[in-house]
Amino acid sequence: MAQQQVAKKREVWSGRSVFIMAAIGSAVGLGNIWRFPYIAYENGGGAFLIPYLVALLTAGLPLLFVDYAIGHKFRGSPPLAFRRLSRGAEFLGWWQVLVCFVIGVYYAVIIAWAARYTFFSLSEAWGDDAEGFFLETFLQVDGDSSFGMSFVPGVAWPLLAVWILTLGVLALGVQRGIGNANRFFVPLLVLLFGALVVRSLTLEGATIGLDAFFTPNWSALTDTSVWIAAYAQIFFSLSVAFGIMITYSSYLKRKTNLTGSGLVVGFSNSSFEVLAGIGVFSALGFMAQAQGVGVDEVVAGGIGLAFIAFPTIVSEMPGGPIFGVLFFGSLVFAGFTSLISIIQVAVSAFEDKTGLGRVPAVLTIGGVSAIVSLLLFPTTTGLNTLDVVDRFANQFGIVGVAFVALIVIAWILRRLPDLRDHLNSVSSFKVGRGWLVFTGGVTPVVLGYMLFSEIRDRLSEGYGGLPDDLVLVFGWGVQAVVIVAAVALSFVPWRKSIDLGYDAGGEIPTSDVTVSAGTTDPDSTTTGGTK
Amino acid sequence: MSTSAIALMIFALVTLWGGLILSIVHLHNHPDEPE
Questions:
Q1: Measured between CA atoms, how close is B3 to chain A, in angstroms?
Q2: Contact residues, B window 1-35, toward A, CB-based 8 Å cutoff
Q3: What percent of chain A has pLDDT over 70?
Q4: Of A85-94, A142-151, A370-379, A437-446, which gets the smallest average pLDDT?
Q5: Residues 6+ apart with CB under 8 A from A161
Q6: For B9, which residue in chain A has the nearest alpha carbon?
Q7: For chain B, what is the domain count?
């Protein structure tokens, strides 16, 4: 330790409560509000809760613990943590980083839309045609071209603002920026969304919506696709297996209760999802009743729910503008805290690899993300581009890297027992054989099934009737570049001062050590300075 | 709302929100050791 001259300490959360808040802020995102209610309704209604709960307990929480163990034990951004896990595993970390980069550049766009809609709500700017307003007036969608660079200022300016705010938070650092932003925005989100749910429940027709949402279709439980949908929802919703939780847990103090914290994060995320289901379906019940149709005729998910169905609901209800502000404000805050976590993955990896300080790293990586985002998406063809990039980033990017990473960790490197021991050495909720079976057996099987059935379907059907060239470039092409670039980045040398052998939990495999730093004390490990 | 819908709603709230409360209590009872 005496040999270390200027040992710049890795940033740390001030306590586990800040970490938990940030992890909840990351996990609770757009998908909780606009994906879960629709998925649950489409896959058995109330009966869906059973596979959902099983998926939470057998895949969501166990995978969350895997991420926490890797990030905390090896104390680094995903490439560094995987590099410390095993020399050959670094590309997995870069794969996760690049998936985050791809997701970040389009995720910001949706937050920008929601921010505009928060203000549109005040005047109900969409009039009596929410769909026409969204597609033609707001996005100015060009139905004739598959890709173009014709900009829409009404999207570009708020998008620029989203990027400036995001990079500003990241530049302030882990505790002062990310920690404080989450301490403010997560409670605010709960408050806003709570008010929205209360208002939804008091609407006429709310019980019709709740009835549609919770009435169980028990036969769905015999359908494999329903179980896969439950695992997919838990998986996408929890922000697991694509680097975020590895990054966040790498900033924890050495003696932190990992699994105890993970249980709070996992159950908070699912509790919010059920709350969202109640709020969304109460509102849809009101809309169905007002229009004199069944709930099945108004139900929607994703962009259609947020930017077409909800504006329609706002127009039809008394006090609509306030309701609109609550809904779109919730989307903005839920999305913003998730975007922060997504971009932080790339920033931290860049910091670790190059030794650059936080601010230059944020400006470089964040700047590139912002420029790509501003060039590709606030255009008249941006909606279709976003749709394709989103589908492939999730179904191939996240699922692919999660599947490969679990196979490598569990079956090739056989490091799950090490990770289990690390979790148990610092945590109150012990994991054992069940955790090994879920993470090494059940989850890879489910992820493998999801991945290969998606590849089969996309190859045979294309995607969503969109032009083949768009799907080829922004779907297959982007994901192929991500994998190739991940492998290439793993060959770029690490800065000399990094301790590639650090391991918080015990002996360091000698084959992994290339630059011995002579210390395993996290507080003296340099991950941003020189020795 | 039908009885089955009410039952499933209560099931969801009890399991997920109950799980959240239990996990918060569990964490509260296990403070981190000082470094």
A1: 9
A2: 1-2, 4-9, 11-13, 15-17, 19-20, 23-24, 26-27, 29-30, 32-35
A3: 93
A4: A142-151
A5: A112, A115
A6: A214
A7: 1
pLDDT of residue A4: 43
Distance between CA atoms of A317 and A283, rounded to whole angstroms? 10
Contacts 24+ apart (CB under 8 A), A404-409: A404/A92, A404/A95, A405/A82, A405/A92, A405/A96, A405/A241, A406/A66, A406/A241, A406/A439, A406/A440, A406/A443, A406/A444, A406/A447, A407/A444, A408/A89, A408/A92, A409/A66, A409/A70, A409/A85, A409/A89
User: Taking CA atoms, what residue in B is nearest to A207?
Assistant: B1
Domains of chain A in sequence order:
16-502 (1.20.1740.10)
Cα separation, A432 vs A446, whole angstroms: 21
Are the CB atoms for A229 and A58 separated by under 8 Å?
no
Instruction: Note whether residue B4 is domain-resident.
Output: yes
Instruction: Kindly state whether residue B35 falls inside one of the protein's structural domains.
Output: no
Across A329-347, average pLDDT: 97
Per-residue model confidence as pLDDT tens digits over A461-503 = 999 899 999 999 999 999 999 999 999 999 999 988 888 888 8
CA distances from A411 to A70, A360, A404, A513, B22 (A): 16, 38, 10, 22, 34
pLDDT in tens, A402-423: 999 999 999 999 999 999 999 9
Torsion angle of C-alpha atoms A392, A396, A398, A399, degrees rounded to 10: 140
Is A274 within 8 Å of B17 when comparing Cβ atoms? Answer: yes
CA torsion sign for A200, A201, A207, A213 is: positive
Alpha-carbon distance of A195 to A285, in angstroms, equals 18
First to last CA, chain A: 9
Largest interatomic CA distance in chain A: 76
- What pLDDT, on the 0 to 100 scale, is given for residue A143? 79
Beta-carbon separation of A210 and B5 below 8 A: yes
Q: A253 and B32 in contact by Cβ < 8 A?
A: yes
0.95 surpassed by complex ipTM? yes
Chain A interface with B: residues with Cβ < 8 Å:
15-16, 45-47, 49, 53, 207, 210-211, 213-216, 253-257, 260-261, 263-264, 266-268, 270-271, 273-274, 278, 428-429
List, for residues A250-288, the tens digit of each pLDDT value. Answer: 999 999 999 999 999 999 999 999 999 999 999 999 999
Q: Which residues pair with A216 in a beta bridge?
A: A45
Instruction: Express each pLDDT in A85-97 by its tens digit.
Output: 999 999 999 999 9
Residue-wise DSSP of A73-98: HHTS-HHHHHHHH-GGGHHHHHHHHH
CB A384 within 8 A of CB A148: no
Query: What DSSP string runs through B1-35?
Result: --HHHHHHHHHHIIIIIHHHHHHHHHHHTSPPPP-
Asked whether the beta carbons of A36 and A276 are under 8 A apart, the reply is yes
d(CA A402, CA A394): 11
Q: Chain B: nearest CA to A390, how far in angstroms?
A: 29
Domain for residue B14, yes or no?
yes
Domain that holds residue B26: 1-30
Give the bridge partners for A151, in sequence order: A379
